[in-house]
Each structure stands twice: as structure tokens, then as C-alpha cells.
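Lecture 7 notes: from sequence to structure.

We start with a single chain of 1108 residues. Read the sequence below before looking at the structure.
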Amino acid sequence: MSQYNIRDVSNGDHNNVRQSIEMAQSYTHVPLPDIPRSSFDRVNTDSERKNSGLQQEFVLRRSSLNIAREDMKRSSQDLRTGVVIKEPNFDQYETPISPRTPKVQIVQKVTEGDAEIQKDLAIDYHKIDLKEMSRRYETDTESGLLEDFAKRRLTENGPNEISTKSRWTIVIKILGYIFGGFGFVLWPSAILAILSYQPLGSLQGSTPDPSNLGLGIILFIVIFTNAFFDAWQDFQSMKVMNSIGGMLPSMAMVIRSGKKEETPIRDLVLGDLVEVKIGEKVPADLRVVKQQQLKVDNSILTGETDPISCTVNMTDENFMETKNLLFMGTSITEGVGQGVVVAVGNQTVMGKITKSTQKKGKMTPINKEILGFITFAVILALCLSVACLIAYLVWLRVSYPGYLSIAAIVITILTSVVAFIPEGLPISVSLTFTLMARRMFLQNVLVKHLPTVETLGSIDMIASDKTGTLTQNKMSVMNVLNGMKVYSFEQFQKTFESNDAVAFKELVRVCGLCNRATFDDKTAHLPMLQRKVQGDASDTGILLFAERFGSVHAVRDQYTELCVIPFNSKNKWMLNIVTPKVNSKNASTLLMKGAAEIIIERCTSVMMQDGSIVPMTDEIKQDLIREQEHFSGEGQRVLGCCKQDLDPSQYPVDRYVFNAEEVNFPLEGHCFVGLVALIDPPREDVPSAIERCNSAGIRVMMVTGDHHVTAAAIARMVGIIKQDPSNTIDIKDSNTITEEMVLDKESISHRALTIRGPVVPTLDKTAWDRILMHQEICWARTTPDHKLRIVKECQARKHIVAVTGDGVNDAPALKQANVGVAMGAGSEVAREAAAIVLMDSRFSSIVAGIENGRIAFENLKKVLLYLLPAGSFSEIMPIILNIFFGIPIALSSFLMIMICVATDIMPSLSLISEKAEADLMTREPRSVTGEKLVNPQLFLQAYFFTGIFEAVSSFIMYFYYMSVYAGIPGTSLLFAFNNYQDGFYGLTQDQLNYHLYVAQTIYFVNLVIVQFGNLLSTRTRRLSFFQHLPFRRNSRNLFLFVAMLVSIVLALLLVHIPFFNNVFNTRPIPVQFWFIPIGWALLYFSLDEVRKCIARLFPYKYARRVFW
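Now the structure, written as C-alpha cells:
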């Protein structure tokens, strides 16, 4: 039996340890003995302290794999006998099994076979110094691996990929395909059909009916066909998901042989030197060797949402707690850094967790609805089956003993199940999803999660980021304020070369040094404007601006960076402290660039054109703010630049260590150098896309971090705000939102709002209600927290919200939204958080996605509406009339199945290909709670309108044939029961059987042809068929006629091929019974046109609410 040790990991305080033991007791439900203080005095040994980090290391590893609880359960058997308190023995590895106990650890020895645990305990790459790490991984922390060596290591060790294959997962999936959906009902039905052939078919001296055996075989074919289509749908979905890697290049910035270049993540190897920055995902497990304000979000591993500040040196013995490691899949939220790859693929923490725990997929809402419908259909089928069985046992077997044999009642019960279940539904649903996913993919809309297809059609609000989404994300400098004078870019360029351009040159220097953008070395030979730049849009625009006046690289080479605080969406500024490499005189300069109003507030002086410094007076400050708002009003992003020469006596470069975490340097009292106004032109497709959204009842709001004047100007350019500035209210504080704003409903539609981000946390429920009553809203100077709050408040008011964005700061809102939409050219963090990726980064693609979402929902309803009448209701009626009214069965089980899986399949698939109705994008978004896929209106249309019409018309044809050709009037067939046998109306049993088989075939043919009228009618909900002709370009669907032709051919084969005649008792029918149903189809088509006309004439009356 294993021995367990309880050891104190605090400071030996008896009371604390006693509380910890009681906590352990609560976990294990085991009474623990009283332990004297002396027992704890022996545990705080040097050897324990030396190994405590090693043990904590595995605690967290085990916790991340969610197996600690299982270990506790296994160990509780031994703990029932008591706990042995003894000095810990660290000669062998020990594995803590109670990671959640803060004071007490219950330790179990590791077995020799636990190789994975031994590997985890051996991890020490966070502890070794950089020199040892370079030796171990044969790399260099400055220049990285040699290129040839990296390629050889890739060949030897394989790619940086996580393998998630599992044999059991595949087996479970296959079983789900075969027995899932209708399979669990069809399996017993198929088995019973075969048993009805033998041995049940031989009971009571009966002759086995070969059609029962054929029916069982057909049911098995249906089962495996549905399983194939389910598997095919999964395969197609997998192909789309796998294409994310191909369509969204997953690259990492790698330094090899001293050269920085982008490399596919899968090609990373141990020892590679990788650079990561804000907005990126960590491509492998890295040991940090350099960092500047680097922060990482480890929530994907730990659940903790607060970003962690990274360091170069170890901060904790536990490799999951130390801050000098970055783990694959985590997100960089701030700063920039470099790290050496210490684990790749399945050897990373993410790889081990993925391998150990398989994530169970969630059922999508639309699948829940379909499952609900399947459950409903199965329950009805079972109820009818039970009713038939009770009727047979209690009534028919007694009153009409020869009416049904045991084999016949089994087939009847089986037939009732088959009749209620539209067996072709799974095939149609699978193909619908696959087709819509492919169609959207071809339109550059990559759907990562299937539920999004359903949700897209119900979006009624879009909260869109500005930069990179509504605009081109290509910043260029338009205007400059320098030395208290305003210049256009061309004027600034001409004046720069003059002798008195001191302030000009200082502004260019700040723009070049306080900037994270860099040119790609591979494009150094190209003209400046054609060179590739690595960095965000603003920094890129300012880099290109500064480069026009001299080499920025040459300027940067003259300085050493002492401290950098990268730009982030909360501070809205960037800071860089530099010192000259030559003649520094132990001095340094602080440079800052950021949002103009923030920079202006932090300055106490201004640099004039000749380089002289004057105090920042209120008058100068107002002039600067006025110019900033003028630029912003023209849709330009305005950034301020400032500097401060730090006192070398207080901040000596050779002795003082600048700390970005503690900020041990001034953030105010700077000298204002100038303003730079950049323009990011709107995308050409955005205004028309927003207009289409408005027509579709979708409200578009802008949510941006820009200045409120800039945001409002861009919002007007793209059509989010249509009102003049005189009708636009600038919400500076919550007091501005008064009750008078919403008293006049008419005025709300003629008013726009611009709301500043700092106001968001101060808004109460009433204020949010008043704001969201307006149609034109622009949110400015927002932080990620503000964006998240905006989305939540909209959702709280039952809005279905889509959020568009491309930056890491958009990720929280993208994840919270009903549909997160990321730009393909945006950050990896944004793409990961989103449910949809627009591959071409065009806002108009989201409109195409919404339209396809609506089409998918509409077409799926049409498929259901087409399948249910003939494949369900019209098949139930012959069974009910046969059991309870004694009418010979009007439709055989075989023909029922043929309708579901043969003649109805191609027409239903043709409906999947239907294009949008002309008014689809002018309708209000559907209500997720109000308009379900299968609702009472659809049941009313399918069963009580179409179903009754098809059943009645088919029975009329059935009775007409029996009356004219068999000489048996319909009234005599009613309550015929066991009278329908040899001698009935002077006919032999063979003659009666022949006429019954012909009548059943006529019933079948009538259903097939009348369904064509249903097919043409179901194409539209409100529009007339003649308003949506299948020949026109915008509504073309020639596949309809191909599908009808295929159905007729299949019906002809079933009716005339001898095999089906002999085995399944189909019969050729008189020729007129192929043409009379056309009249029924036209009559149904005309009746449905009347229904649509009523719906159009009285759109808000009760009639429309009744119609589907």
C-alpha cells in the first residue's frame, strides 16, 4: 500500500495547519487523527524547500489535465485507515494529488511506468540561464539558429503540429452515424421486417411474404445511406475548418542566421528564436530572452483573464507559474518580445492537454431544433404504433379474427413508424449545411462554427470597429501642426529643407524613434512605397512619413533604447526612452506619441519653429485643441508628439534602471513637438453595404477608439450617421441623456448620437434604454471593456449582435457577440475569438454572409415543408383508415419509403439551391425566440393544408380505380375488414390482391405528381411564383425541372420493372392515372397562390400570422 505524507507548506503555524487538515478531511471524507505541533516542526527542511517547486510544478500540470479528482478518489481507500505523518523522503519523485488544498499536500509515490509524469517533473528550461539554454538547444539568443541546421532539425523532429487523433473518438462517431437520428427507430423496424418474413411469416399456416424481407433490406439501405451523408457532412465541415490554416497564413517572425523573416508556424523547431508582439498568438512554448512591456493572456490554459507581465528570469519554480515562459496558443495582449522555442507540437503544454482531454462538441441550436422535431415525430410514431397494437389486441383480434395475421400487424406497426418519419430529412439537412457552407466559403466568408449559419439570419445589430473594418487600414499623413503652424504634407515637405526647420526635424525624429513599425529587410531593394512594413496602420503611416525625410533605420542606429511602453488601447500612447550611442553625456530623452488630447494634457511647454521652448498657456492649449478637432472633423486620426530631456543627475544612464512596470520616470511635464493628422480612407464597398443592412432592418453602430469628431466624420462618410452635425448630440456625460430625448418618438429618428467611451461605465439601465432607442449611434474613445459592455447591454435588450473587428482589443467583444466577425487581415487573436472570418476583409462580405444565413434558414424550412406532407401525413392516413375503418391499406410500406428516400429527395435538394426571394433582404430580421425552424405555422401548412389536400386527392384516385376497374364501390371498402378476401364482390383472392396493388401504386403516383405542385409553390413564402420565376437570372433554379424529371423516371422504374412488381408488389397502372394527378397539382398550386395573395394584401392581419 502506498504511504501518504501530509506536510506543511506554510510557516508551520499549528492553527493554519489544523485548518488545512480539516480542509483535506472535507475533500476525502476521511476522519484524520489529531496531530501534535511537534509533527510539523520537522517538515520545513532544506531538502523540502529545495524540492517544493518541483512538486508544485506537477500539481499544476495535473490540475490542468483535470485528473487530480480521480487520484483523490483512488487514494481515499487508503486514507480510510488513517494518515502516516513522517519526514518526507525526496530520494524518489513524489506527485501531489491534492492541488486545490492550499496548506496541505497529500503525496503519492510515482510508479516506474509513469513516464509522462517523470517528463513533467524533469522540466527545467525556465530555470537555466541563457548561456546554458543556448548550449542545450544549440542556438544563439541574438542571431537564432543557423538556417541549414533548422531545416535539418525539422526533418528529424517533424513539424510543429498537435495531433488529436483518437481511435475511440472515431468509433464513437461511426456508431453515432449508424444509430443516431432516426437510426435508433429504423434499426428495430428493419429487424422486425425481416422477422415478419421468417419466422413470423410462417406462423398460423401463413405463407412468408418476400416483400417483408425486401422491406427490411431497404430499411438497412436507408440507415447506412443516412449514416454516409452524416459522415460526409462531418467530413465537409472538417475540410472547411482545416482550410482555416491554408486561407489564414499562420506565420511566425523567426530570427535565423541573424536575419528576421516570416516562417510558417509548422516549420518551427527547438532552438528557434521567435519574435512575438501584441495581437499575435504564441506559436510554440517559448523561453523569454528579451521583452519590452510584454504581457500574455494565459486564460486558455489557466482560466485567469488578467494578462501576465513577462520577465526574462524565472519568477517561480513551477513552470506553469513562472513568468519567463510563453505557452503555445496563448495570446500576446501587449508589448513585444523574443523567445527561444523549448517545446513544439505534442510536447507543448497545449499539446499534452489536447492529447489528454478531448473536447466534446456542443450541439448547435439548429440541430437541437431538428432533434426536437425528430423526437416529436418518433413519439407520434410510437403513439400510433401503440394505438394500432392495442386496437389489434383488444378489438380486431376478437371481432375480426382473420383480418390481420401476426406478421401483418407487425408490418402495420412498422409501417406506422415509417410513415411518421421523413427518412430523407437527414440527407437533406446534411446537404443543406454543406452547400451553404461551401457557398459562403466561395464568397470569402469562412464560418468556423455551424451555429453561426443559423444566427446570421437573425442579426439585428452590428457593432463595427472603424480602422481596418470600415476603413482601408492604410494610414497616410495629410496634415501636420508644428511650431504652432499648420501645414499640408506637401507644404511640410517643401519647408523641411530650410535652415530654420529645427522643430520640423525634431518632429520627424520623434516619429521615427517612438514607433514600432519596421521595414521588411527582404523588400529593401524596392522603392519606399512598395516596401513591406511590419507594424500597425498608424505606425506604418508615420514611418513612411518620417522615411521621406531621411533613413529612419540610420536614425535608430544612433540611439539605444532604454525603456519602451508600447501603445495599448487603454493608455492610448506609446513611450520610448533613448540615449545616443555617441556622446550621450549620461543623458536620455523620453519620447511619447499618442492620442492628441492626451498628449496635449501631459505637456507644459511647446517647441516653436526655430526650436525655442515656450510655456504651454491656456490660449495655446485651446488653439491646439481647436486644430485637432478641425482635423478630426475631416475624418483624420490626430496623434500628438512630445519629448522630455531627462535630468542626467536624477536619471544617469550608466546607473539608473528604467522600469516600465513601476514607471519610475515622469509621464507629465513634457515639451509639445507637434500634431500629425493621418487619413484612413473608407473602403469603397462600405457605404452600399451599410445601406443594405439598414434596408434589412439591421442597425450598424461604430465602436472605435478614435476621437469622437474623427469617428463622427467617418461615420457620416460611410452612412452610419445620416444626420447633419446640428442634429447630432455629443454625449459627454450621463447627464446629457435626459427623458426629453425620447419623449418625441418622431425626433428620435432624426437624431444621431456620438458617445464618448468614458461615459460608458457611468450609464444606468434607463440611460442605456434611451440611447439604444436611437438608430444612428457612434461610440468613440472606447476601450475593450467599453466595447464589451456595449455588446452586453445590447444583448440584454434582446438584440442579436454581430461585432466586427481586426485587433486584439476587439477580441473580448468578438467572443461575447452572438456572431463575432474578424477580418482575414486582422490579428490572430481576433480571428481566434470570432465565429466568422471575412477572408477578403471587406465589410460587404458580412452582408453576403447575412443573406446566405437567411437563405439557409428559409431553404431548410422549405425542405421540411416539402418533405412532410407526402413523406409523413399522406402516409399516415392509409394506416389509420386501415386499422380503424377497415379500408384495405392504400399505400404499401415499400412505397412509403420510396417516397421518402427516392422520389422526394431530388426535388428537396433543388429547394436547397433556391436563391433569395426578392424581398428577403428587405424583411425585418427573424426573431430567434419567435420564429423557429419548425413552428405551428409550418405544421399547419404541411399537415392541414398540403397534407390533407394530397391525402384526399390520392384517396379519391384510389377509390376511383377500385370503383371503376375492380367494381367495388368506396362505401363497400369502408369497414370491409376481413370481408376483403376470396369471394368479395365475386373476385378471387388473387384478383383482389392485384387490384389492391394497382390502387396502391396509383396512390403513390398521385402523391409523386401532386408534390410537384407543392414544389413550385414552396419556392416562395409570400411572393407569387410568377414574381420569382425559375427562368429569371436573379431567381434562376433550373434544377427544379431536372429534379421533377428524375422523380418521374424513378416512379416509372418502380411501377414497370418486373423486379419491383414481383418482390414489392408494385403494378403498372392505366395511362390516364399518370395525367389526372397533373390537374390535382395545378389545383394545389392555384390554392397556394391565393394563400400568398392574401398574405401580401393583408400583411399585418391574422391571416399572415397563420401562414408559414
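DSSP finds 39 helices and 30 strands in the chain. Keep this in mind for problem set 3.
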